[in-house]
Design goal:
The protein is an alpha+beta fold and 425 residues long. The protein folds into two domains: 2-53 and 290-423, no CATH class; 68-277, no CATH class. Helices cover 52% and strands 20% of the residues. It has 13 helices and 13 strands. The chain has helices at residues 2-16, 19-57, 90-99, 134-137, 150-154, 164-170, 220-227, 259-270, 284-327, 329-337, 342-378, 388-414, 418-423, and strands at 61-66, 83-85, 103-118, 121-130, 142-145, 159-162, 180-183, 186-194, 215-219, 230-235, 238-243, 248-253, 279-282. It has a six-stranded mixed beta barrel. Strand 7 and strand 8 form a beta hairpin. The protein is elongated, with a radius of gyration of 34 Å. This is ABC-type antimicrobial peptide transport system, permease component. It holds the Pfam family FtsX. GO terms for molecular function: transmembrane transporter activity. The chain crosses the membrane at residues 20-42, 298-325, 349-379, 385-408.
């Protein structure tokens, strides 16, 4: 141990004799380590953000959604149908519940775009006809009042729960509880207000982005009774109708292991009754697993690109150590003449390279932890997570590179003939 400590002191002394050259050599390792940590942090942050969105959908859920078909698929004799009927029906929901035994809970949803009014104030929002489980499935929190109950749905009550922005827009100066809002031709009593919730981003082509803050929630049976199944649209002076009964059904099974076997049973219960492909089935667990695989690949690519900087830093260390060996040829000869063995010379130069790479690694770790914080500060929507694994990996690679690229110069120094080294000018 004493020999190693003495070697470290001699190595530091030798490196400090050429401060600028040693500093420039260390920079290659510093930026390499910082690049690896920063890129892995950005990759990990993006991965966790995507996985969080998938998990919010529920890993034990299976989502069945209505998909509006093209006009051509609904046309008759080359002319678009006046009534475009598509999507999930209540018969589909009843069939699923009767034939799929693994389902623990089911959430039917009907969505409509409507103007929501109170006195002279209005907001264009989404009317969601649903049941009492909607807030649990979608992680909504109640700020005031309550959410819908089974009794509201069973009794066809004209009650509504307002989302945060809807409540602020329609009731800027008063408490919305027990007030009324107008949807279509009917009035609904406000029984609750939800807390503000961040929008969900769109996930590929599977699910569209959702804005929860402009919603109003009413009982599903009330929605069916008040709005019916047909929506009238005016297009280029002509009147057209869309007919759909349910926008979405979210099915929840008891365990992750039941998701895979349940999926084909749900398909068999729905797809044969929709030859026009106006229904889509989404399994968040599959999307989550795919996101994890993509994240791993992304991290490997980013880490590989950043590791090139470390490789360049290692080449810089080898270059500077080869120059150092040439400059210290007489010193090597004197040490050999005084009894130093080849392993002592090898150890001395290896210690110097490890000191260079170790100092560079520590500085790089500090810089690598700081850079993601700056990125998140200036770009809040970008997520970055520095993990202990990435820090240890980057520092370990920097030290390993120091040993690997310092080995050849050290061996070259050790293999010098003492007499030739003493003659060197």
């Amino acid at each position: 141990m004493g020999r190693i400590l003495r070697g470290i002191r001699l190595g530091l002394k030798s490196l400090l004799l050429h401060k600028l050259r040693s500093g420039l050599t260390v920079l290659g390792i510093v930026f390499g380590v910082a690049a690896v940590i920063s890129m892995l942090a950005i990759g990990e942050g993006s991965s966790r953000d995507a996985q969080k969105r998938f998990e919010q959908l529920g890993a034990t859920n299976i989502i069945v959604r209505s998909v509006k078909p093209t006009d051509e698929s609904q046309s008759t004799g080359g002319r678009p149908a006046r009534i475009l009927a598509y999507g999930l029906k209540f018969a589909d929901f009843d069939r699923i519940m009767a034939t799929v035994p693994t389902i623990k809970k089911a959430l039917p949803i009907r969505e409509l775009r409507k103007q929501i009014r109170h006195l002279n104030l209005e907001i264009d929002g989404r009317v969601v006809g649903t049941t009492s489980d909607y807030d649990k499935f979608n992680h909504l929190e109640i700020e005031r009042g309550r959410f819908l109950t089974e009794s509201d749905n069973a009794r066809y009550e004209n009650v509504a729960v307002l989302a945060a922005e809807t409540a602020k827009t329609l009731f800027p100066y008063e408490d919305p509880l027990h007030q009324t809002v107008k949807l279509g031709a009917d009035y609904y009593k406000v029984v609750g207000v939800t807390r503000e919730r961040a929008s969900t981003a769109g996930i590929g082509g599977s699910l569209a982005a959702q804005e929860f803050n402009k919603d109003v929630y009413i009982p599903l049976n009330t929605c069916k009774l008040r709005f019916g199944e047909r929506i009238m649209n005016s297009r280029a002076g002509s009147m057209e109708f869309e007919e759909t009964q349910l926008s979405q059904v979210t099915l929840q099974v008891g365990a992750l292991t039941e998701v895979g076997p349940t999926h084909p049973i749900v398909e068999a219960a729905v797809k044969p009754y929709h030859p026009k492909k106006d229904v889509d089935i989404i399994v968040p667990l599959d999307l989550l697993n795919e996101a994890k695989r993509t994240a791993r690949q992304f991290s490997i690519i980013l880490g590989t690109i950043a590791s090139i900087s470390l490789l360049v830093g290692g080449i810089g260390i080898m270059n500077i150590m080869l120059a150092t060996v040439t400059e210290r040829t007489r010193e090597i000869g004197i040490r050999r003449a005084l009894g130093a063995k080849r392993r002592d010379i090898t150890q001395q130069f290896l210690i110097e390279t490890v000191v260079l790479s170790g100092v560079g690694g520590l500085l790089g770790v500090t810089l690598g932890i700081s850079i993601p914080q700056l990125i998140v500060y200036f770009i809040p929507e970008q997520k970055a997570v520095v993990t202990g694994f990435s820090v240890l990996l980057s520092f370990g690679i920097s030290v390993a590179i120091g040993i690997l690229f310092g080995l050849y110069p050290a061996q070259r120094a050790a293999m010098m003939d003492p007499i030739d080294a003493l003659r060197h000018e």
